[in-house]
Write a structure and sequence with these properties.
The chain is of the alpha/beta class. The protein has eleven helices and twelve strands. Strand 8, helix 7 and strand 9 form a beta-alpha-beta unit. The C terminus is likely disordered.
């Protein structure tokens, strides 16, 4: 690939820890060896956070467009009105508006190819709501922007990969929201992502049940029998190695996790509680199934510690690394697909293989 990967970074909610984790990650100049970062935010808000956190020796290169990004600097594009007000630790309308304006500009640049991948800092899902942004979160917004074939919220770490069939919806709506086709669609996206984004040749996917004990053969619910098992069978017929349904508690409490490349949970907390218990400090949220690459840290705005220099940047750092790795993996696989090895039908080559070999000359015995 020519040149470094250009990574767009949205600043998230300006009253949260977004700028803190961005600064702490990019303060290490070695990050510039891997990518060219372009922050979508506000130089004025950035200066406020830098002063509050007492961060010295960290400068930003102001640019108007992504194509002006300096490859050896941390760049920033101003997307927000200079009159925006920062109120650390508070969920305000200004905070939501500033978050949306950065997301909108960054996603437009991503769609136009001005940046190669996107890493999003946390937003507050309520104060960002408006006529322009009426989605439960980044995942749904990006799916509407980029995909007609759906997407999958996929949490990834060194320990596990967990996707969810239903995302940000009330628990009371989960049962009605899952159906066989939807589960198959999520398995299809997950299977393809494991191959294309993580270079896993033959992915093995565990599917969790919805009910306690995975329904206990219909005693504690019929969703497994009526919906989940038919979905697993259909997925298998499509060449997807999906097994289950497994009771969630027993699955995560046993050694089963190590036997699979990924897990598909039926709803948000079923998958994310065990994931964050084991991987909270370095987990990454990846939106699988899109034609573009987007990652984020697996935590929220953390208003309660905003501006206190207490935020751990590791999850954001891993999100940046994963965006780079996934982008490279997709490009490598695309390059390989352009030049596939030729396949041959051996049965049609018998005549070509039937070649008369030269006869061996008879050995002469040594004369006495």
């Amino acid at each position: 690939m020519k040149g470094k990967i250009k990574i767009g970074i949205t600043h998230g909610d300006i009253n949260g820890i977004g700028y803190e984790i961005i600064f702490k990650t990019l303060a290490d100049n070695r990050m510039l060896d891997f990518c060219t970062p372009v922050i979508y935010g506000s130089s004025k808000v950035a200066a406020y956070h830098r002063k509050t956190l007492n961060i010295a020796n960290f400068s930003l290169n102001n640019i108007k467009e992504a194509n002006e990004a300096h490859p050896k600097r941390v760049n920033i594009i101003n997307c927000v009105d200079d009159e925006v007000r920062v109120e650390l630790g508070k969920a305000t309308k200004d905070g939501g508006t500033a978050a949306y304006m950065a997301i909108e500009k960054a996603t437009n640049d991503l769609k136009d190819g001005n940046i190669d991948a996107l890493v999003t800092a946390p937003i507050h899902k309520k104060n960002i709501q408006s006529d322009e942004f009426s989605f439960p979160g980044h995942t749904e917004y990006l799916e509407q922007k980029f995909s007609d074939n759906g997407s999958l919220m996929l949490l990834i770490s060194d320990i596990m990969k967990v996707g969810v069939v239903t995302g940000h919806i009330p628990v009371t709506q989960v049962s009605n929201a899952i159906n066989t086709d939807k589960i198959v669609d999520k398995l299809r996206i997950l299977n393809h992502s494991l191959k294309n984004d993580f270079t896993i040749r033959k992915p093995k996917i565990a599917v969790l049940g919805l009910n306690p004990h995975a329904g206990d053969n219909g005693l504690i619910g019929k969703e497994e029998i009526d919906v989940i098992i038919p979905a697993i069978e259909k997925a298998k017929s499509l060449g997807i190695m999906a097994l289950g349904p497994y009771p969630a508690d027993g699955f995560f409490g046993s050694n089963n996790l190590s036997k699979f490349d990924a897990v598909l949970a039926m709803y948000h907390d079923q998958g994310l509680i065990p994931f964050k218990t084991l991987s909270f400090s370095n987990g990454v949220n990846f939106t699988a199934g899109l034609p573009v690459v987007r990652t984020s840290p697996d935590h929220g705005t953390a208003f309660e510690i905003a501006g206190q220099d207490k935020a751990d940047p590791e999850s954001f750092r891993q999100a940046l690394y994963q965006a780079i790795d996934i982008y490279k993996s997709r490009n490598n696989n695309a390059e390989i697909s352009k030049r596939p090895l030729r396949s041959y039908d051996i049965s049609k080559m018998d005549d070509k293989l039937d070649v008369e070999l030269p006869k061996e000359e008879p050995k002469q015995e040594n004369e006495a």
